[in-house]
Amino acid sequence: MVELEETDTKASGEKENWEIMAERPSAGVMTSANAKEPWSVESVLSTLPTQPETSSSSPIPFFHMLERLKTTKREGWRRFGIKHGESISDHMYRMSILTMFAPPSLSSKINISHCTKMALVHDMAESIVGDITPVDGVAKAEKSRREGDTMDYLCTLLLGNVAGGGAGQEIREIWQEYEDGKTLESQYVHDIDKLELVLQMLEYERTHKGSNLDLGEFQWVADRIVLPEVKGWCEEVVKERAQFLKSIGREPTNNEMLETGSRNQQDEYYGNGKA
Question: In angstroms, rounded to a whole number, what is the distance separating the alpha carbons of residues 46 and 54?
Fold first, then answer.
């Protein structure tokens, strides 16, 4: 694993302050080490320094829970030593912007503002569940149970009494639509999710080109994109990556060497590229 821990040459006091900020943990969030342990929303909440107030008419407890999306890192990158990489919120924010750029061939068929909302809430459950990846050994059905239970908690116990519960209900329904993946809007957002990952893969490799960082394991998602409009964007990024690697004397890599079990788990999580 390439070690990409950031260093700080400032005074020790400033360094300590930076470390406190950089290591703000998401208490109770799943890691690869505890992925298979018994899990419940309650078990995670019991680890929090402050318990959120439930059944409140105020959205403030929910607002506080959203902070965990800002402080919880995307786990896939951490496996490669990128310790101060993007958060779940970072990922969803860029996704939400990308949804706005659907070309006319697609925008004429879908509700763009609905897609943007979907991008903003699709990983909301990870505020409590954490970012479970295909290599963590958690079955898709178990992952879905954890995330569904979390969304019920957020949208019912935290938002159920806020302004009649309408906002919570809408968030829960949009999240479920994404999970079901049956509408054209949800298919588009799923594809945007994969495109955003491929963009970030290339950007980290460029940033850390001196370390020979190889994130080719993630390029497999390019083949799982369904809609031709998003597939075209992703092909551009893959070509960019090939050109970049050639410029530094390396060959493009992908996940062809992954074991069959890992590949099957990836397909279960992210689909096989078929509509």
Answer: 14
Residue 259, classed as helix, strand or coil, is coil
Instruction: Kindly report the number of other CB atoms within 10 A of residue 173's CB atom.
Output: 12
pLDDT tens per residue across span 191-236: 999 999 999 999 999 999 878 899 999 999 999 999 999 999 999 9
Measured at the CA of 204, the angle between CA 28 and CA 192, to 5 degrees, comes to 75
How far apart are the C-alpha atoms of 187 and 58, rounded to whole Å? 34
3 state DSSP class of 211: helix
Measured distance CA(245)–CA(214) in Å, rounded: 10
CA distance 34 to 76: 15
Strand stretches in 46-189, DSSP E = none
Nearest Cα to Cα of residue 30 among 41, 14, 17, 16: 41
- List, for residues 79-88, the tens digit of each pLDDT value: 899 988 999 9
